[in-house]
Protein 1
Amino acid sequence: MLLRKIFARSLIVSALLAFSASLWAEVSRYEEPIRYRRAVMTMVKRHYEQVSAMAKGKIPMNRDELNRHANYLEMLSRASIDGFVAGSHEGDTKAKPEIWQDWPHFRSQVEKFQADATRLKEVARSGNPDSLKGALADMTRTCKNCHDDFKASSLER
Ligand code: HEC
């Protein structure tokens, strides 16, 4: 009787262990690309906000700093796609599965972002404040469009 109880318990324990091991494998498999893209987006936000603050006159316009932020943004727009490894919508992420279900559409949004960033970099070099505002407005629309389509508003989807 007692032995049967112990046996039953150990079965439950090993079943639980097997379950959590498979869960862990699932999480750790995509942990790195998820961390990668979230880090890229965090950096994108920082440099985008600095450019935006200068364009709006909230912080003093400094051409060297403007060029530096614009260069980083362009580099980051190119790096952003590397974090979107197929199937990595499970885990600590707001990336919607639609990214991989409709990859050509997602990819075209990334390419738009990259084109916006290249233009912003060129405009920053030229130093024309109106063109800077225009290029920034285009980029803001691109961030929003992609988030509307492909980023969940909360972690619990
Ligand atoms: C091509 C699509 C796309 C574009 C363009 C894009 N984002 Fe994102 N962004 C995402 C997705 C998808 C996530 C969710 C990533 C995740 O949780 O794994 C995200 C997440 C973020 C986050 C949250 C990062 C975190 O802490 O997890 C910030 C901030 C962000 N984006 C800012 C921006 C800004 C600012 C721009 C424009 C300058 C931008 N994004 C452009 C798709 C995009």
Protein 2
Amino acid sequence: MTYLAKADRYTDMIYRRCGNSGLKLSALSLGLWHNFGGVDVYENYRAILQLAFDRGITHFDLANNYGPPPGSAEENFGRILHQDFKNYRDELIISTKAGYTMWDGPYGDWGSKKYLVSSLDQSLKRMNLDYVDIFYHHRPDPETPLEETMGALDLIVRQGKALYIGLSNYETPEFEKAISILDDLGTPCIIHQPKYSMFERWVEDSLLDSLEKNQVGCIPFSPLAQGLLTNKYLNGIPSDSRLAKEHGFLNEQYATAEKIEKVKQLNEIAEERGQTLAQMAIAWLLKDDRVTSVLVGASKPTQLADSLKALDNIIFEENELRAIEGILA
Ligand SMILES: NC(=O)c1ccc[n+]([C@@H]2O[C@H](COP(=O)([O-])OP(=O)(O)OC[C@H]3O[C@@H](n4cnc5c(N)ncnc54)[C@H](OP(=O)(O)O)[C@@H]3O)[C@@H](O)[C@H]2O)c1
């Protein structure tokens, strides 16, 4: 069936400016790490993408290695892009990344110029695109000089293969060194993608302050702690959950009894707020306006529809915040 985007798709979404750039991002972005690979069901992920766009999500986040198998999420996204979203390319912000293992040998990993340039060329081919909107270095490389990695990102922008540059998983000192090199090159970093949720708060130590000071946007990934910060695991491990699947990066060591107890208590606060726990976990991140967009995953359209409702209430009373801190402590 031919897809026609909903005419009112921009009415209910919040758009936030990404740092000091000209770019605004939808307050929710959709990540394609899981559920869009070769092992997944086409009709399901196509429906998730259509729902996202119909509800004002403009930003879709990929990486070279998303799948499994690696590369298949980009291929699948590219196929749907050309089938359903061809007429909407200028309404979309598509990101991809390189930095983790992608192919054999010494040039398929980390942060050399050789790897980053070749990897983005491969990603563009897989998605059948001329350019991506944001290209990220996925993780810092302890061996390659930062000047080389940042130089490769600058080159990629000058070649027109990416419009903007982002960094992911960089801790504050190396982030600050990297953005200073990028500034000198004339290609500013506009966004940082860290892991950040109620269960993972390292960014609060200094990264968020640094992002604010340097006017760089922030897009937290795994905001639901891969599904733990939802009502999904309240009564055991469902067979269709990420935790139960063989592929993927969530296993039982993350879902300790202590964590599930905290999830139960957080769920009570969410219910008092009239939200699901997923909605509260997203709102809790968006209450901070240094957060540009929250990068969620979804394995079903109904999950994304649930998460989108977080935007109905992103304000917290002092007593709610205190109660949440008490549980997380
Ligand atoms: N830069 C990096 O290093 C990095 C690393 C990881 C992720 N990311 C990016 O961040 C994106 C999001 O990561 P993530 O998938 O871990 O995010 P997440 O939003 O924390 O977890 C998504 C999972 O939570 C469950 N879920 C989602 N919405 C739900 C709802 N409303 N109710 C109940 N369960 C719900 C689903 O799990 P089930 O599958 O169990 O149903 C879904 O697959 C990725 O796709 C990727 O783009 C980046």
Protein 3
Amino acid sequence: MAGDTRPRTGRGDPRRGPGAGRAGGARPPLGVRKARRAEPRGDDPSRVACAHFPDCVGCPLVGTTYGEQLRGKDAALRAALAAHPRIAPVEPEKIFGSPLPFGYRNHAKLVLRKRRGRDGRAEVVLGVYRPGTHSVLPAERCRVHDRRLLPFLVALRARIEESGIPIFDERSREGALRYALARISTESGAIHLTLVSAIADPAGLDRLVERLRRDEPRLEAAFLCVNPTPGNSILSSDVRRIFGPRALLDRFGRLVLESRPDAFVQANPGVATRIYADAERWLDPRPHDVVVDLFGGVGGFGLALAPRVAAVLGIETSAAAVDCANGNAKRAHQGHVRYLAAPAESAAALVREHGLAPEEGGRLLVVANPPRSGLSVGARDAIAALAPSSLLYLSCNPVTLARDLDALAEGGLSLRRIRPFDMLPQTPHVEVLALLDRDAAASSGAEAGPATGA
Ligand SMILES: C[S@@+](CC[C@H](N)C(=O)[O-])C[C@H]1O[C@@H](n2cnc3c(N)ncnc32)[C@H](O)[C@@H]1O
């Protein structure tokens, strides 16, 4: 076992109980913040000991009660909105907390590193980068991962060490194994492992995979991704199947979504299920409506809305995700759903090309779920050209969301509802769902459906 993963003692000891670090529970002096703790407390079962606290920085809120975390996220959203006084003053709805404050995450993405242990022997570390550096902190026992991944990751680290397959060295650029990605289906418990290697055929790989299959009957598939390139991208497009099915199936409420190592799927199925359900409730789709699902991933939004509308066109740049989205539509018998591998910036042209204007009485509904950077100017222009009746925007960054809401208001789309969700407990991240409707004044000049211009 890597030395740093052992429980710590002394200052910052996650196993120490309430009051640890201050004699007899005396109050800290005014203005001094209480020491952070990461130990279960009678009044808050969400506090659990973490083997990597406080060294690992992946979960900076792990010593904060879950209630405080939710209040902080609500405040972060309000502060981002307040920076743009032109946004319609809409009160955010109550934050939706994660059903699981720990053990919620359906995948682990970890770096492999070789180092000298305390006894002088070389050992393998499976962990995360210390921010701003390339030094790696152990994280194989991370508590936010689905708890069924924990024994697998512990065994994986030990088996890789035992296999003798050389770990990639960033400085010399020698060695093979760089990263390990483990994904789990929340519903079935099936695990898919992807090992990222700088070389195509690391000696000992088959034997390693065989041992892992023996250790862990849940291991349903393994992949090798060959990525020799410098830079921060974990995956390349060269993903080879070692054994098992290509796609991992999981359930998000009534949706069954397949994903692959290189296709994005929401990290917290319990929260994503609620977001897809709210999307349907908020948009309240009707039979003649047409949906355009921008940044569609494996099709979660499009498929949540599909049974109630005339057509869905999904637009997504990742070919692997588009393949999964079309597979998901087929599995769900939704023949009127189609996903295309294209940038969201080309949405207006694609909608025209595919003749997707809604029929008389139908509305054009757009969903956008961009990465943290938010909508590019090109994507905002495409939405303006589509002139949707409503836009549903899911964001993982309240700052870029507020910026985009401000710009979209200029184009006649006004905020109607907004709600934060806690997709990633123990971290400061907050997910936000916003519904924008076309202003009455703006829609009186535009027919339902996309504008014919650019
Ligand atoms: C936050 S994920 C959205 C996933 C999806 N909506 C869901 O619910 O699972 C963002 C997606 O946008 C895709 N993407 C990034 N830039 C894009 C662009 N310019 N146009 C279209 N898709 C893009 C990424 O590949 C990724 O799948």
Protein 4
Amino acid sequence: MGGREAPAVGVRSCRRCGGRFTRERPLVCRGLHGQCYDHARAVGELHRYPVTRRTIDREEMARLEAAGLSTGEIAERFRVSPGAVRVARHRLRRGGAVVPGGGS
Ligand SMILES: [Zn+2]
């Protein structure tokens, strides 16, 4: 390998406790362990740890979808993975539009 590295996430250790991310203690959000994230949120320090990942603008994504772009094309626009686009779309659908007859 070598050479080409994914530039999206450059966080290897927790920004709060400095510990490495492992399977038992994975990176959850904002470059933090789940526990550290919860703690930071609880004490109101979440703003100290800005979001590390590129975000997908929902309105922009809806526009691109309406324009007929594929998932892959939209992913390229936002420079994220197609999977991230699918997740964002799913959230968009759930949060943005009411599904008729779709109870919980
Ligand atoms: Zn941590």
